Structure formats: structure tokens, C-alpha cells
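Feature request, filed as a ticket because there's no other form

It would be nice if the structure record came with a short human-readable summary line next to the C-alpha cells. Right now we just get the raw output. Example of a typical job, pasted below so the devs can see what we mean:
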Amino acid sequence: MPQAANPTSDINLFTPPPGDPHSVPHPFIRLPSPLGPNFTLVTSPNGLYQLSFSNGMAPSTNNNHAAARVYVAAFSTSVSSPVWTHTQSVPPNHDRMLTIVTIDFAPGLISGATALWVGSWWDDGTYPDSQPGVIAYFADHPSGGSHHTVPIIPG
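Raw output as currently delivered:
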């Protein structure tokens, strides 16, 4: 199984096929090509876990608002009972310049977690910047849908 410290994942636009329950185009996270779902996240040289994201969508993607929000939950038995959650807004690409946003967190924050899920949606308040917002996001976007939720194993 591949391992990575501070992988940078792209956020791109997903256009659902007919019949998809989320019928509107929306952001999704694309892992770096050598990584696949269920890779092991290891700490960076600074001793922290780090996940970095770049938003490749143009500002006009979603009614001139292409900021994406990344949702992260660490849990041991169920994503509905996380030991740690985090959200982060990732601005769109402006003038061909990608902004890299990095989420740093100490291993102690996710102590006891056996899974880490990461996903994204528009930064439009649909899923608020709060633990209930993270839980609601993952309730609507469980792992296994190929584009909504990326499972990661904390190393």
C-alpha cells in the first residue's frame, strides 16, 4: 500500500451522469496519481500530518463562486462519531495561479482513529464549517462513490 507525507490533491469539477443523486456539478478531490484510495498518510518531517489541496476550477465555475470547502473527519468506528474534524476553504485558481492550502494536524488530535476521510463541496454553506457540517457532508457522501469521499489510513 502506498504511503505519503503531505500529498497535494487537486480539486476539480465533477459533472454527474444522468441519474446521479447529486445532479449538480460539484467539486471533487483527485489524489496524486501514484496514490489511490486507502493510502497511508505518514507524518511530515515536522512531525505533523499534512494534507494539501489546490483548486483548479475557474472562478466562473459555480455562478462566479468556485471556492471549494474540504471536509476531513478522523474516526475509529463510524464517521458519524468522529474523534476529530476539520474544514477548510480552498479558493479558486485566479489568473492561472493555483493557491495551495495545507491542513496541518498533530497525531495526538486523531489518537485512536483508524480512518481519515476527506471530501469536498462548494464553499457555499450547504455543509457548514463545523463538526455538524462535516458529519452532514459525510452522511450525504459516504466512501465508495469514486469521487465524493477519499478514505485514508493514518500511519
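Something like this underneath would help us a lot:
The CA atoms of residues 6 and 107 lie 13 Å apart.
The beta strands are 3-4, 8-14, 26-30, 40-41, 49-55, 68-75, 84-90, 100-105, 115-122, 149-154.
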